[in-house]
């Protein structure tokens, strides 16, 4: 402890006396150190693990200030007073560095090591296995899209331990970025939305987007190839979603009225579908968008850090890996600094791309679920999907198709800019459910979207300030704060929908 204080104090003095005008050393810290030891302690606690990085920076600066280590030889010969001070200081730094671990372990907040015991068999269970574990019966359906992707659709046809029942209402649940059908069942009966809907009389279908754990196959493309991962949410909206909806209609009859419930990217693909293939506005009964993502002017997610590179697709592809957006690469760690060093989440959370990109809310987070969550997310997403989102951020939040650059856009779309999704063509009744602390779906953007919907049902804001993007799936209070309202909206939607559809006969 003392050593650290002395070190930092010396750094302070040296910096103050030098002509160093760089802003790398926080001024307020200078005062704090000169002031009270306890304040240093608090500072360290507050900064957590990032202080180690800070310390390395200090060392680098000092090293460059004094020149390379080989100058010690020179100094050993004719060493003046100034040199001696500098050498002494260098020795302090080296000594401190040697004892670095001791220093940090004694004052930095203890990293709570999460016991990731592999004991819980649920960690490795598939969605159907989880559903069986929870006492429900499930079905798996395989669908091939018109561009050859082989998708798995999961289904919970009936409520718990009950056989065939009278006709049930239909709900299609679509997970978000990096998610899968497991997202809806992980919290278990009474808590997971899939079960809540099932118990409320719905025939629940759970989609899986191309490329995720359950849809990682193609009739001709190898999932290890770029050709397989060469897609964005646009392709999902044009091929996966129609295939899934058509399939459900085929199974249940053409007059089935599907309630679409999407989370995050699951809402993006709905908006993209309804604005481009407008016939689906007639097919679905209503849309319910949890944490809706379309316009992205005010996002807080580290995706925005990628935005400034997003006009250089080749570079981003190199940076992120051209195919699947893989969770354990250096870039993710770079992105995670944004979330984790500020909030000092524990490592297991910081190493997971879903939490990094979408945030984490300590209070609403049910720690019991963590091992199972880590076993199921991220379930897979293409790098191009991330780039597509990053492009929107850079282009003033425009909800638009993939940007290939001016030349590429001419080839693809015949215009220098990618076409915006014509949101005004969405005539399906849609309810938006958002929260204030959502890193991906800000108030401003969701309100902007709501204002453009032809048949808005309601914009419901979750009455809890801290509620964030992934809380819609797994928060302790999600049933009370979100699902209760959602069920109400689903009921209300019924009477409203049909009249709306008839009076707004646009296609
Ligand atoms: C010590 O720090 C506190 C708050 O940072 C400040 O108000 C106070 O003036 C400081 N005292 C001295 C002697 O610098
Ligand atoms: C310092 O000098 C030694 C030999 O005296 C050499 O091996 C080493 O690479 C030098 N280091 C630097 C940073 O120049
Ligand atoms: C983690 O596991 C070890 C040994 O299995 C046990 O001693 C320790 O108390 C556990 N820690 C927590 C926080 O559960
Ligand atoms: C990737 O997709 C774009 C358009 O979607 C297409 O022009 C390009 O040829 C594809 N590249 C590969 C390698 O499949
Ligand atoms: C947390 O998750 C566990 C396992 O699903 C569940 O038994 C428990 O009730 C949950 N706690 C809260 C507060 O939701």
UniProtKB/TrEMBL annotation:
Pfam families from the UniProt entry: Abhydro_lipase (PF04083)
Keywords from the named record: Glycoprotein, Hydrolase, Lipid degradation, Lipid metabolism, Signal
Signal peptide: 1-20
Family recorded in the similarity comment: Belongs to the AB hydrolase superfamily. Lipase family.
Gene3D superfamilies: alpha/beta hydrolase (3.40.50.1820)
Sample GO molecular function, one term: hydrolase activity
All copies of domain Partial AB-hydrolase lipase, residue ranges: 128-186
Organism: Parnassius mnemosyne (clouded apollo)
Record's protein name: Partial AB-hydrolase lipase domain-containing protein
Top-rank taxon, per record: Eukaryota
GO biological process, any: lipid catabolic process
């Amino acid at each position: 402890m003392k050593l650290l204080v002395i070190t930092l104090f010396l750094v302070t003095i040296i910096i103050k006396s030098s002509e160093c005008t760089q802003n790398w050393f926080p001024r307020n810290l200078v005062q704090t150190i000169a002031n009270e030891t306890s304040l240093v302690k608090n500072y360290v606690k507050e900064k957590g693990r990032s202080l180690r990085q800070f310390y390395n920076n200090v060392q680098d600066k000092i090293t460059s200030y004094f020149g390379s280590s080989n100058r010690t030889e020179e100094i050993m010969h004719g060493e003046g007073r100034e040199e001696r001070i500098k050498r002494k200081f260098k020795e302090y730094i080296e000594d401190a560095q040697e004892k670095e671990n001791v220093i940090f372990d004694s004052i930095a907040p203890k990293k709570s090591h999460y016991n990731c015991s592999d004991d819980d068999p649920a960690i490795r269970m598939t969605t159907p296995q989880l559903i069986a574990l929870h006492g429900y019966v499930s079905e798996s359906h395989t669908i091939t899209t018109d561009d050859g992707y082989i998708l798995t659709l999961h289904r919970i046809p009936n409520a718990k331990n009950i056989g065939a029942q009278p006709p049930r209402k239909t709900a299609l649940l679509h997970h978000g970025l990096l998610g899968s059908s497991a997202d809806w069942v992980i919290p278990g009966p009474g808590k997971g939305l899939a079960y809540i809907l099932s118990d409320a009389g719905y025939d629940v279908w759970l989609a899986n987007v191309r490329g995720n754990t359950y849809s990682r196959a193609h009739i001709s493309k190898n999932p290890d190839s770029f050709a397989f991962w060469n897609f964005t949410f646009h392709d999902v909206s044009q091929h996966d979603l129609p295939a899934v909806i058509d399939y459900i209609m085929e199974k249940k009859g053409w007059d089935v009225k599907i309630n679409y419930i999407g989370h995050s990217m699951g809402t993006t693909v709905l908006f993209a579908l309804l604005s481009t293939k407008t016939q689906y506005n007639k097919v679905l009964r209503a849309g319910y968008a949890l944490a809706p993502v379309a316009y992205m002017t005010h996002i807080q997610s580290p995706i925005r850090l990628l935005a400034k590179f997003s006009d250089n697709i080749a570079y981003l592809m190199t940076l992120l890996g051209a195919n699947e957006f893989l969770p354990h690469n250096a870039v993710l760690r770079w992105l995670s600094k944004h979330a984790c060093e500020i909030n000092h989440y524990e490592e297991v959370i910081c190493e997971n791309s879903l939490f990094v990109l979408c945030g984490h809310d300590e209070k609403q987070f049910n720690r019991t679920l963590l091992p199972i969550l880590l076993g199921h997310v991220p379930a897979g997403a293409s790098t191009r999907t991330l780039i597509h989102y990053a492009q929107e951020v850079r282009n003033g939040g425009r909800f638009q198709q993939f940007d290939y650059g001016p030349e590429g856009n001419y080839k693809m779309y015949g215009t220098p800019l990618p076409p915006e999704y014509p949101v005004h063509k969405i005539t399906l009744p849609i309810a938006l459910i958002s929260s204030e602390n959502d890193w991906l779906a800000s108030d401003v953007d969701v309100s902007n979207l709501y204002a453009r919907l032809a048949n808005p049902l309601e914009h419901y804001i979750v009455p809890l300030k801290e509620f964030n993007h992934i809380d819609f799936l797994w928060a302790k209070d999600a049933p009370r704060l979100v699902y209760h309202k959602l069920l109400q909206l689903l009921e209300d939607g019924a009477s409203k929908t049909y009249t709306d559809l008839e009076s707004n006969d646009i296609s």
